[in-house]
Design a protein that fits this description.
Blueprint (H helix, E strand, L loop, with lengths): L5 H13 L2 H8 L3 H15 L4 E3 L4 E3 L1 H29 L5 E6 L7 H9 L7 E6 L4 H6 L5 E5 L7 E9 L1 E6 L12 H5 L2 E3 L6 E4 L10 H9 L4 E5 H5 L6 E5 L6 E8 L5 H28 L1
Helix pairs in contact: 1-2, 1-3, 1-4, 5-10
Length: about 300
Amino acid sequence: MNPVESRPLRYFVAVAEELSFTRAAERLGIASPALSRAISGLESDLGVRLLDRTTRSVALTETGAVLLADARTALVALDAATRRARRAAGVPGGKLVVAVKADVEGGLLEDVLAAYRAEHAAVPVEVMFTGWREQPALVRAGEADLAIVVEPFDADGLDVEPLLCERQVLALPSGHPLAGRPRLRMADIESEHQQVVPGAHVYVPHGEQAPPFGDMVQMLRQIELGRMLALLPVSLAERNARPQLSWRSVDDAPQAAFAVAWPQHSRSLAVAAFVRLATAISASRRASRSAEAVETA
């Protein structure tokens, strides 16, 4: 059996997604006959039929459907490895790209970066500030080497190490009826609001859609305008005090759980050092909080 190269796999994925040789050829920027020959060659190399074709339609065979799922995964991994290699080649000794959502990293980032830069074998670090929940996809794609994330998130293809948990508080407009309540529980929020998606800690009035936002500044502005509410880590609240916002404790609110995520099977010493320091600093903070709780009790 001949080894399969990446180009015919890319061609196959395009045809499988478009279910049209004409549209796939336009997408790939090649002629339809060349694309057809490449797919036939791939089927010959594998010894299987991937597509059922007529003059009017294209459909995946069962074998083709299996290959499509695996080919997508393989091509994503190949593209990610290529990006990481090119990034390493651009800086002597390479560099480490850390993806974080601005202000949503449990207050860990500064301490972990300082500890990492003090390491003897540290490489330059670039912090990539991202949109909401974009970090896992950036790590999978090789745009970032690792990320500090808050659960829940898509951990497919990633190794994950829990860091710490933090109390969440409710962000709402200063004039909102809930802002004047002496105590709040989740039922108070959910009686008139719904999650924008299951598992999210962002809420809109029943029957309404979430307003668009791409970063934390936009998100907080939408809250100020009364278009949504959100449960957010208390460390974020401490850095974003403003007259138009109220930050209220919710007795039974879930905690924000932070983790560090990196590609599965990574052999990067820089990634390993960053993960080691992040977990050590998080453990130290948890121990300090436990000691403070005992002293207060």
